[in-house]
Amino acid sequence: MLRGLSHAGLGNLQSDEQLIELASRYGFQAVDIDAGGLIARHGLEQARAQLEEKGIVIGSIGLPVEWRTTEEEFRSSLKHLAPAAEAAAALGCTSCCTYVLPSTDQNAAHFMALATRRLRLCAQILGAYGIRLGLEFVGPHHLRTNWANPFIWTLAETLDWIDTIGESNVGLLFDSFHWYTNEHSIADIEALRPEQIVHVHINDAPAVPVAEVLDNGRLYPGEGVIDLAGFLAALNRIGYKGAVTQEILAAEAPQGSPEELVQRSKAGFDKVYAAAGI
Amino acid sequence: MLRGLSHAGLGNLQSDEQLIELASRYGFQAVDIDAGGLIARHGLEQARAQLEEKGIVIGSIGLPVEWRTTEEEFRSSLKHLAPAAEAAAALGCTSCCTYVLPSTDQNAAHFMALATRRLRLCAQILGAYGIRLGLEFVGPHHLRTNWANPFIWTLAETLDWIDTIGESNVGLLFDSFHWYTNEHSIADIEALRPEQIVHVHINDAPAVPVAEVLDNGRLYPGEGVIDLAGFLAALNRIGYKGAVTQEILAAEAPQGSPEELVQRSKAGFDKVYAAAGI
Amino acid sequence: MLRGLSHAGLGNLQSDEQLIELASRYGFQAVDIDAGGLIARHGLEQARAQLEEKGIVIGSIGLPVEWRTTEEEFRSSLKHLAPAAEAAAALGCTSCCTYVLPSTDQNAAHFMALATRRLRLCAQILGAYGIRLGLEFVGPHHLRTNWANPFIWTLAETLDWIDTIGESNVGLLFDSFHWYTNEHSIADIEALRPEQIVHVHINDAPAVPVAEVLDNGRLYPGEGVIDLAGFLAALNRIGYKGAVTQEILAAEAPQGSPEELVQRSKAGFDKVYAAAGI
Amino acid sequence: MLRGLSHAGLGNLQSDEQLIELASRYGFQAVDIDAGGLIARHGLEQARAQLEEKGIVIGSIGLPVEWRTTEEEFRSSLKHLAPAAEAAAALGCTSCCTYVLPSTDQNAAHFMALATRRLRLCAQILGAYGIRLGLEFVGPHHLRTNWANPFIWTLAETLDWIDTIGESNVGLLFDSFHWYTNEHSIADIEALRPEQIVHVHINDAPAVPVAEVLDNGRLYPGEGVIDLAGFLAALNRIGYKGAVTQEILAAEAPQGSPEELVQRSKAGFDKVYAAAGI
Prior knowledge:
- The structure is a homotetramer.
- Chain A is an alpha/beta fold.
- Chain A has one domain (2-276): TIM Barrel.
- Chain A is built from eleven helices and eleven strands.
- In chain A, strand 10, helix 10 (228-238) and strand 11 form a beta-alpha-beta unit.
- Chain A is globular.
- Chains in contact: A-B, A-C, A-D, B-C, B-D, C-D.
- Chain A binds chain B through residues 104, 107-114, 116-117, 120, 149-152, 157, 160-161, 163-164, 166, and chain B through 104, 107-114, 116-117, 120, 149-152, 157, 160-161, 163-164, 166.
- Chains A, B, C, D: GO terms for molecular function: isomerase activity.
- Chains A, B, C, D: This is Sugar phosphate isomerase.
- Chains A, B, C, D: It comes from Paenibacillus radicis.
- Chains A, B, C, D: InterPro entries: IolE/XylAMocC-like, Xyl_isomerase-like_sf, Xyl_isomerase-like_TIM-brl.
- Chains A, B, C, D: Keywords: Isomerase.
């Protein structure tokens, strides 16, 4: 499993280049960045060289398609997907992710039909470039009622949905934070085949009742109460070998320079990886 | 467009054979029956001959798969589909239909995902036999709250769902009763392409506020307030050429012998077809 | 059915704008042009206005994806499809076409697998914009052995392939020239449902043995031996309502100015439409 | 990886029950048998108990659908698939396999289109029962010209085809005999992800030029020249954990009782597994 960083939780990072540099300096192997931007700024060869020199791979790109709102916005944004996928593939990235909110102001069944059609098409396009689509179920309880109608949020529902989408390159973005807030178990992880997991996020949660955990109240790995050692050990046991990327969404920006925050992240990763015995 | 009859609304019919006989005698051209049963009782050649002699085609068969409940029941019933489709195809029937309830006790989004996957598979199997799958949206308002969570019930939502199912042999079972209770318009029909319609039901409704119309309070064509002349004329205008089948679901059995009820149905069809100018 | 023109056979046309102008002046209703280019040159509103003012619609755009060669070229060209489809849709065009050569230097079965996957993805992307994909089977006999291995060229094979591609927005580009060189019949047309036809080409052929007809030896409608009256009447009978577009591929450029050649085309259309009684 | 036996190569086996008994006695863990037949003879509970008691799982069932000939035969046999899949699933079997001949008397491209559609539907039905479809590429050179037109036979072509079929539950039946006769390499195995392999066959080949190896000239594992140690070690290295089943197709029945032949098979498995270090 590759240790990964994203911008979230690292303060005022200036650029993807800085993230690559810091990730490399502190023993991380993956970053979640915009592959197309890196190529646009440096050219393909230089972008590749930069990643190789630093020993960094791109863990995942974000899905550049608006699939949650109107058909017009979906269509209009869809044209960004093939270029983004081409760029990611050119840099060796094989993962593209999006999150699934647990409630919606739309009719839930109708929205599920629309979302299924739209995400299937995204997966089909990504598949042409050898890229997989990861769907992130979202666990914090307050989001289940944040919009008018409940959508889906559990692992089992998400796996059913992936089945319905019906493309072989669709899987999970599996985030320890949502696993925890959904009160899923180690056994739930062990029941997965590794190819069902496209990407992993790792975050910790504060010691409050699980129903009160806030989506933007995430902690650095090892600084909270989630059994991240168990989480990582189970992922390792089933054979997952991809990136495990930190994404610290927080209401208040953390104190410290990006370098200090990467050091803090490294300490957290060291702690939970050691506890997991990997 | 073919005038069609189903068992519903014809009292104590003894058999599909009696329905075929009465339909033929009173100028109908289609019946909705169980194709496999007819073949089982008479053999394929005799079944074919009986239909041909009477000038009757099978308008549609019902979907013999339980797609609304558990995965176990779905799997267990799925094996009935290929034989049913084979029988229907052998008798020249190219339509298989099922209805979609407008609310559900399941999580609506999750059920939509499950239903999409199950009905897609049904469509795929039917497609191997040249048979189309018709989905019937259901309009009566009381059913929208009959179960805990709203599902879908409008024409537009159903068309979106058909798009999501993504098989070219899926379309609408279009029932005048649901068109009326949804307060859809003539223009809504005119916006359809004929190949989007797999089968048509024709029923009338009593003169009560539309929100109070009951699903099992259907009237014979021409005996109620639905603009069936406009409905039929619009279907004819867009080029629909399939069966238009009566399905009188009523809380109380209608008075009269099956033959009298077929005569009453014929009078209704004569009236609304004449009013439609077809 | 709309009378349509393409650049092929009209000599030294200066631009799509000139084609629109001439088509309009001589009673045509459709042109096959590059929708994206028109918008790029005039802006969307002006492009729309120009078409409306001239009473011209875009019959079809060409598929801007290289699906016949390597995976690299396919991927690299795929990103052009969404923008092209968005442009076409913005101008009201619902058709995008490509031709299928009847032989290949690749292993035919393997190429069929690759082509199926690639064209399915093209259809899926086009479908998001409400655009259909038309596949043109190609009849001239000399092309069947022009490359090492036979591929497919008949109507029946192409319909089977469309079934395999399995997207509801895929159909035929039906060209009278290939219908003739394949020695297909009027009954073959009558067996089609109109929605199976995405676009129609009309061309005539010289009075040589059918096996000797050359793909680039096409004549203006009415100047050759193809039963174009029967062809058009049959299309009309089954309910086809789209464009019928001339595409005169010829080894030598025809004599005359574009305007003279459009006049000649008009005379040909007048003749065969009259003979068809439409 | 589970040691598996099929009927092929074990002489006059009386029944699947005898195969289960002998497999168990000599340290095998899997058999390829007809799950539905076992249930029909014993009932589901007894069938399950018999397998459990003997420590045997069903490695794979054969595909009971005729996908290689006419549409009529395909349709007619399709109805056997759901019951077969239901039976297999009830006994815990998750694999169903079929072989792909490397040449065909049909037009190769057209047959590829038909086969793609048919096998996709088979995969879709199997998927409803949690069963995967394994496609076996066939390597012996003489079969490439045994029928008029070349089809596909390499690993790479088969993987492309699986991609085209486009269902996530389709993968390879990977047979050492075809790997060898195709002159594929250890690196070709190492390039596979384990989930791409549905089932494995193990057979050996005589010391004749590879182009002269006959499909029905197979030897027991360890009695020929194939690098089965390398084959098994590579499969183990990539994480394949399913059955490795012997299928000795031979022109002449082997000498000896079934029990003696199972003993001979065991000796072969012991030898090659030991050489593979597993």
